[in-house]
Specification:
The structure holds two protein chains of two kinds. Chain A is an alpha/beta fold. Helix content of chain A is about 40%, strand content about 20%. By secondary structure, chain B is α+β, with helices and mostly antiparallel strands. Chain B folds into four domains: about 170 residues, PAS domain (Beta-Lactamase, 2-Layer Sandwich); about 100 residues, Beta-Lactamase, CATH 3.30.450; about 100 residues, Helix Hairpins, CATH 1.10.287; about 170 residues, Histidine kinase-like ATPase, C-terminal domain (Heat Shock Protein 90, 2-Layer Sandwich). In chain B, helix 3 runs antiparallel to helix 4. Chain B starts with a helix and ends with a strand. Classes of the chains: A alpha/beta, B alpha+beta. Chains A and B meet through helix 1 and helix 5 of A and helix 8 and helix 9 of B.
Chain lengths: ~120, ~600
Amino acid sequence: MSLNKILIVDDEVNLTKMLKLNIEENGNYEVRVVNKAKQAIDSIREFMPELVLLDIMMPEIQGNEIAELIVADPALCEIKIVFLTALVTKTEAPDVGKKIAGRRFLAKPVKAEELLACIEEELAT
Amino acid sequence: MSVKYRMLIILTLLTVASVFILIGFFNLVDSWKIADRLDREGRSVTQILAATLTEDIKTQNLSELEKEVKNTVQNLQNVSHVIVYDKDDYELLIWKTDKIFNLNNLRYFRSQIHRGGDYIGAVKIGIDLRQLYRSDAEYSEYTQSFAVTLLLLLGLLIALAVSLLLISPMERITKNLKASMTILEENKKDLTDFQQLNETVQLFKENIKIRQEREKETEYTKLQLSNVLDTVGEAIITTNKEGFIVMTNKATANTWGYSIEDLLGMQLTELMPKKYRKPHQDGMKRYVETGKAKVLGTRLELEGLRSDGEMFPIDIHISETIIADELMFTAALRDITERKQAENELNQAKFKIEEILEERTKELKETQLQLIQTEKLETIGTLSAGVAHEVKNPLAIIQLGVDYLNKKAHGSPAINEVIGEMEDAIQRADKVVKQLVDFSASRDLDLSKINVSELIDDALGLVKHEIVKAKIKVNSVIQDPNLLIEGDRHKLQQILINIIMNSIQAIESNGMIDINAQKKKMGEIDFDITGSYELKGEFIEITIEDNGSGIPEDKLNNIFDPFFTTKPSGKGTGLGLTVVQNILRLHKAKIHYENKQGGGVKVTILINTTGD
């Protein structure tokens, strides 16, 4: 059986490195990282992951915009999305919340356990 | 004219004159009698009174004194008033009859009272001498007519003698011959007599006329004076040196509620309250004796006493005059009730304005403080949002790094210990960042109607674990389950948790936390809530009391300051209560902290109710 593919999109290189380390440590996932938001959609189309771990606040394109593109594309709309964000305040999040209704949120700093539990839950549905 | 006729005329005149003489004589005798009687009466009444009153004067028993005086003199027609003096010659009692009398007709009788050789007082009685005066006046008229008549009579007697002694014998001798001659002669004589009489009568009439005119003039002057006095708005009172009112005007009567007739003869002191009487009498006495006056010529403010007992403020100006060689005092008085009232109102208004000013200043100061605080908080808010974002990413990296290392360490105790401490540090940093974010986010409220009882239960539910761990007994019995407020459920929960967590941390042993909520009104709050203008008439009071260590009194004013904490280093961020206050301020609510007697803290939150 092939490993579940997970794509991590975040402009913070060190963070993506740590996320990758922890997820791969689990042994059930194949993880790829994108640090440039602009390349995110291309990478998704190419890699076709089961789940995208998406940072919201990034330069160039916001995480929620990428999510919109995924949802809008019939070829990609089955891909699960988990947001990973430092933005937890209402003033910054309401619009995002609306457009990504039903999507999971993980607030930074997230613990490895929580992260993996969340991924497992999402993939199980 | 025959001798018979002349005789007849003379006899008639004689009879008339005799009648006049008799009337005049009796009147004269009568008036002497009256004067004598009054004099005796006056003296004896004075002496009797003096004897009767000795004991009461000595003891200064005023009511007895008054009773005695009344009993003794009230049936005596001519007694107008009685004054009883004590040994210092101060008036102990002034009794006055209801009858109207004129002061000019008064005669005073004074009897000193000695006891065991000591002078203990005196009684002075005024007797109305109108009767006597009238008699005197009549007497003088009678005396005049008596004199005239006497003269007439003398003339007629001589005429009679001449006619009888000389003319009648001649008549008898030359009866017929000289009859006409005699008649002629007699007629001539008659004519002379009557001319003289006429002149006298004329003179007498003129005298009367002049006198009447003078009286008329005096009357006119009096009338004019009283008219002038009545036109003056001020009350004007003239007293003699004994203090009796001898002249006054309408304004006085109106102001004090007496009639002018009542006022005449009253003591000036009767128009003032008791406390002013003695100083006034002292002053008068001193002035009469030494010529030194404190009040003459100056304006004074004191009080008047109306006939109905009401006291009122007056303004008085006293001057002295000498009228007909007698020292008199004239006082011009004004009822200054209205002026005083206006003054009072002005003072009150001033006081009120000062009060308002003080209140406003206080409000302004408070607003200024709040502004400074708000500004401070806004800066922190803006800053913290940025900081939070920038700190969270590195924190996430460290967290995930630590998690990874933990898995790779494979149970080495030394590494586990290091990792444990790093975990703690991350938690702490995360907590600070979370509160900073909460803080920056606390300006926006998600309003809904909230049941207070449920709110408290939910908050308690969220800290249940901590409460159980600290073995704290919580009493939260809300009597009224239907208390409603409008607010941000999540944020209000957050502040309740914050306050309860503070209590839990402050409790050392046998912990108790009492939570209560009830409706309250403005007057029922015993701490200062000035400046809480957004609280409406009725609001909800939520109290959270613990039996913990309390807050040092000198720190109570700082507990809401950002980054202020009394907790050990690393245990508190110093932002908890700042956030609490900020959130409550957004809810237009008020929070108050106080140390309880016997230890512990009582937190009171006042928040508007939505009604039903």
